[in-house]
Specification:
The protein has helices spanning about 20-25, 35-50, 130-135, 150-160, 180-195, 200-209; strands at about 10-15, 55-60, 80-85, 90, 115-120, 140-145, 165-175, 195. The chain has about 210 residues and is α/β, with parallel strands linked by helices. It folds into two domains: about 10-60 and about 95-209, Rossmann fold; about 65-95, no CATH class. Helix 5 links the parallel strand 7 and strand 8 (about 195). Helix 2 (about 35-50) packs parallel to helix 6 and helix 4 runs parallel beside helix 5. It starts with 10 loop residues before the first strand and ends with a helix.
């Protein structure tokens, strides 16, 4: 049986946290070496979906500098980023609202008509207008790229699945801090939530739709 095609009229593209703080060298040298292949894949799918007039969404971290909206949590990782803020332990984010690091990288910059979803937690759906925008646009399928694979990409994919959206994870356009983490999610987790395809495979499915 042939794989179901993707209908461009019912599909949306999400770039998750494709931000300067994560993808640019700290010394101002441009895209980090380890991120260049991922960014190139993101550019390829961006060009393709724009040509098909598929709506493009950007999920961007939007944390207050004073810590009032930082996550109140205790975890085994990132202990060095815990801060006492307004009487509670909170996890200091990698970047805050208004900083250069919170901007989408120039290579993937939003265009007029795109959707910029300002989020405060890992899932793009949590406390945002993301689902409303998808539903009013008659979208039932979500393409996801960005990082980190095991953090915001995974949280958004789980949330999309629980809301009955079809999910396609763009394997070569996502990245985790460690290759073994990427491999585990792509091979064992995401296939239970939807489809895992390369950018080129996804473009082929869109053209067949």
């Amino acid at each position: 049986m042939a794989e179901p095609a993707l209908d461009p009229r019912r599909t949306a593209m999400l770039f998750f946290d494709t931000l300067k703080v994560y993808l640019y060298d700290k010394d101002g040298g441009g895209i980090r070496l380890e991120s260049k292949a991922q960014v190139a894949a993101c550019q390829r799918i961006q060009d393709a979906v724009r040509a098909m007039q598929i709506p493009v969404f950007y999920a961007v971290a939007d944390h207050r500098a004073d810590g009032a909206d930082w996550a109140t949590m205790i975890s085994d990782n990132n202990a060095d980023r815990f801060s006492e803020v307004f009487g509670r332990q909170r996890l200091r984010p990698a970047t805050v609202r208004g900083s250069e690091g919170a901007e989408v990288i120039d290579e993937l910059a939003p265009q007029p008509g795109d959707y910029v979803i300002k989020k405060h937690r890992w899932s793009t759906f949590q406390g945002t207008h993301f689902e409303l925008s998808l539903r009013t646009g008659s979208v039932d399928t979500l393409l996801i790229a960005g990082g980190a694979t095991d953090v915001g990409v995974a949280a958004t994919a789980y949330a999309a699945r629980d809301r009955d959206f079809n999910v396609v994870i763009l394997q070569d356009a996502c990245r985790a801090a460690r290759q073994e983490v990427d491999d585990y999610f792509m091979n064992h987790v995401f296939p239970r939530l939807g489809r895992v395809r390369t950018v080129e495979e996804t473009i082929g499915l869109l053209k067949a739709g």
